[in-house]
Input
Amino acid sequence: GAMLRLETPVERIEHGTDGVTAHTVGGTFHARGALLATGINPLGRIAFAPTLPVSKVRALALGHLGRAVKVWAKVRGVAIGTLATGGGRGIEWMFSERSTPDGATMLVGFGVADEGFNAGQVEEETRSAVARFFPEAELVAIDRHDWNNDPHSLGAWLAPPLGGEAGLDHANWAPAGRLAFASSDIASDDAGWFAGAVGSGEQAAAALAHVLEWK
Output
């Protein structure tokens, strides 16, 4: 019986003892409570009335610094299980992870979107890395997702800012009234990983059920 709305970003949330109202680009919705399952960086773009507790506001202002770039390259002529790293810029690490049904090899590569990385030329950076690390390879295809510029992530996996670790601690993200929070960024275990996101969601759902006295 749940209603699923896609492509409906939340812009503002009003919350109080009478429930929660979410103002979105697609309309306004009211409920007894809300579970906000999104990363710290995009959560910081949502306005709250009243404002969240000070410790949460500070954590949202800092956000997290995860700006990794992950790419996949399909190649031929490379053995499985080879790791290569170095170069000091661009894609700095590549691993021949697994074979494909047609006999090719999947390379996974990582870099950091900093001043030494041209984010607008990821394909060129990937071609350069494949040639540098695996000169014997025949490049077939390249694929990636730009997590750093995706408005629903605004960054890659968790990288707490120096001095801001406490703000991302799970204990700091206990429910605020009728609002519960879930994300791999604030997970009590496996923070930054998919398993952390799942566990955080389960804990937040249980906490919200307790607040609303669901039986």
Notes: The longest helix spans residues 194-211. The chain has four helices and eleven strands.
